[in-house]
Amino acid sequence: MTGTATVPRTAEELRAAILERYDTFSKRLQQIARFVLDHPDDLALETLAVVAERSGVQPSAIVRFAKALGYSGAMPMQRLLRDGLLANHTALGYGERVRQFNVALDQQAGVDGDGDLLAEFVDRDTLALENLRQTMTKTELTRAVKLIDQAQTLYVIGFRRAFPVASYLAYSLQQVGKRTIFVDGVGGLTGQQMGAVGETDLLIAISYHPYAEETVHAVEAAVSAGAKVLSITDSLVSPMAKMAAHVLQVRESEVRGFRSLAASLCLAQTLVITLAFERERAGAKSASRTRRRKA
């Protein structure tokens, strides 16, 4: 990318350019690309040295990454993201708020020993939920609900840490009247449970780093069968995201090495309840039209 006309000029254009070119990058540049996609506020607000340390690369590699996208160096790319934060009235990015919270926890632990674990989890989950509200757009949610509503059969899969989210979605979607198959893989039967997936169906795949191999294989099988995939994951360049028709990105909280599911479950509940409301409104409109025709 060399011409100035092709240089991304907004944060959204930058994200689109990275996603489009991700597979063409070297492993080192892919590492940086993932960090930029997953932690744009860090790149916007921190110095190049700090960003390099957190992403595990040399500052010169970040400069090479920026030049590969058409910028003269890292600073114009950082300025673009910083301007985007300011335009959205985001005074402090999620990553920075988490680090400030960690500092406060360390100070409190110094006074109270182990501190208050319940307060730690509640406060950290509050940050993750606030970030979900700020970053998840109505357009993204509407598209996800539309995919779910239009599917003839839903397949829901999520292993390991994602299993509670998948089981909740499978149960709740059945409750609102959608034909749903929970791909739980019991007895090693994941392939058989996915055997009937077809072009009119939707696979909802939930997975987080390091990404369950069974989920990745299920996504590959669904795509090969012509089905659409809705991915709920922690990165736009995760194995599921790259094959999905639509991606909902979730950043969860972590306390002392234990990662939460508060934001993912909140998102799952939002999808189900929104679908229920939409189906109820559609039913009411249909009934109203029927009454008018009879009248």
Automatic annotation (TrEMBL):
Coiled-coil blocks: none
PANTHER family: GLUCOKINASE, TRANSCRIPTIONAL REGULATOR
Keywords: DNA-binding, Transcription, Transcription regulation
GO terms under biological process: carbohydrate derivative metabolic process
SIS domain boundaries: 144-287
Gene Ontology MF terms in the entry: carbohydrate derivative binding; DNA binding; DNA-binding transcription factor activity
Cited SUPFAM superfamilies: Homeodomain-like, SIS domain
Domain HTH rpiR-type, chain residue ranges per copy: 12-88
Upper classification of the organism: Bacteria, Pseudomonadati, Pseudomonadota, Alphaproteobacteria, Rhodospirillales
Official protein name in the record: DNA-binding MurR/RpiR family transcriptional regulator
